[in-house]
Write a structure and sequence with these properties.
This is 2-oxoacid:acceptor oxidoreductase family protein. Keywords: Iron, Iron-sulfur, Metal-binding, Oxidoreductase. The protein is α/β, with parallel strands linked by helices. It is globular, with a radius of gyration of 23 Å. The protein folds into two domains: 189 residues, 3-Layer(aba) Sandwich (Pyruvate-ferredoxin Oxidoreductase, domain 3), CATH 3.40.920; 82 residues, 2-Layer Sandwich (Alpha-Beta Plaits). It contains ten helices and eleven strands. Helix 2 links the parallel strand 4 and strand 5. Bound molecules: iron/sulfur cluster (2 copies). One iron/sulfur cluster binds next to helix 9.
């Protein structure tokens, strides 16, 4: 293991900055802590880490920030990382709901948990130059019965030259052996696979066939803040899309084995199940389950547990599954 490391690239403050975009439950907060700890305790760097999250519940947005500096540089910045060298996206659906690439440097690195290729991610995000790294962290975590955070850490070690994998492994070992000793081996395996099972592609020239997007940087300061008290983007639970809260799985509905008992609807925390009144074989009015409105499904799987038949099953969410199996609610605005 290295004992003295020097950063090969820094910003004007002498810092190397990493931003991890995730949702609650995927372990980005812990990943940020372990990465910073590896840098400070085992690589001789200065480092800092903190996370930002709202309601601290599974599925809500979480961002973890990590900064490193050479030993002679004091880290004075305590604000969120606005212009990262590396952005790690723990959940691909976040591209739909937030500006994940905001501030990413032109030669920055984008790491994504996905089954897509770097070329596909480039088209999806509009990233023109930089390096795209793709890893099926969820697939690895499912096979190893762990969470994706250690696979993402492995990938980070592969792409950031000054982070020594042995240092991070040591921290993973220390962290898990305190609370979950039974999970040490599987997390080390997940980490090792994260180091190797990835696809890396660097783009040095812009591709003008790809739709260019401008990634916002921080624009609001004391001179440009919106006037207090004005809600410029009012929320409405009817329009809310919870797909980014799903952690890679959703309930699949099989109408053939459904007995329309509504056990699923009773446990669902959101308005996911869509019903329709029809007549039964005796001509009586009866509520039939039509399907699932995946816009509101956060993937908690309570319905799968409650279903007395095999009409609901937990399946890994694949590209466009939700759109193709969607049963939309029809609301009447009063
Ligand atoms: S997984 Fe089932 S219970 Fe949970 S939000 Fe989705 S439909 Fe509702
Ligand atoms: S719990 Fe299962 S069987 Fe009952 S209505 Fe829901 S999907 Fe159908």
């Amino acid at each position: 293991m290295k004992t003295k490391t020097l950063l090969t690239k820094t910003n004007r403050l002498g810092l190397f900055e990493i931003r991890m975009e995730s949702i609650g439950g995927l372990g980005a907060n812990l990943a940020g802590k372990m990465l910073a700890e590896a840098g400070v305790l085992h690589l001789g760097l200065n480092g800092s880490n903190f996370s930002s999250y709202g309601s601290e519940k599974k599925g809500s947005a979480v961002t973890s920030f990590v900064r490193f500096a050479n030993p002679e540089t004091t880290i004075r910045a305590a604000s969120p990382v606005d212009e990262p060298h590396v952005v790690a996206i723990f959940h691909e659906a976040l591209f739909k709901t937030q500006d994940c690439l905001s501030g990413l440097q032109e030669d920055g690195i984008l790491l994504v948990n996905t089954v897509k290729s770097p070329d596909e991610i480039r088209v999806l995000t509009g990233l023109q130059t930089g390096t795209i790294v793709c890893i099926d962290a969820l697939g690895i975590a499912v096979q190893e019965k762990t969470r994706i955070n250690t696979a993402m850490l492995g990938a980070l070690c592969h792409i950031v030259d000054f982070i020594d994998p042995e240092a991070v492994k040591k921290v993973i070992q220390d962290t898990f052996s305190k609370k979950y000793p039974a999970l040490v081996e599987s997390n080390i395996r997940t980490f090792d696979r994260g180091c190797h099972e990835l696809t890396v592609q660097t783009y040095t020239e812009p591709d003008f066939n790809i739709e260019r997007r401008v990634f916002a940087t921080q624009t609001l300061g004391y001179k440009t803040q919106t006037i207090g008290g004005i809600i410029v983007n009012p929320g409405n639970s009817m329009f809310k899309n919870l797909s980014a809260s799903r952690q890679g799985f959703l309930p699949a509905f099989n109408a053939d084995t459904c007995i329309h008992c509504a056990a699923c609807d009773q446990v669902c925390p959101d308005l996911c199940f869509v019903w329709e009144q029809r007549t039964d074989e005796k001509g009586r009015a009866f509520q039939f389950l039509k399907g699932i409105d995946y816009q509101y499904c956060k993937g908690c799987m309570k319905c799968v547990v409650a279903c007395p038949t095999d009409a609901l099953a937990k399946v890994r969410e694949s590209e466009r599954y939700a759109e193709e199996h969607q049963t939309k609610h029809v609301f009447q605005l009063l």
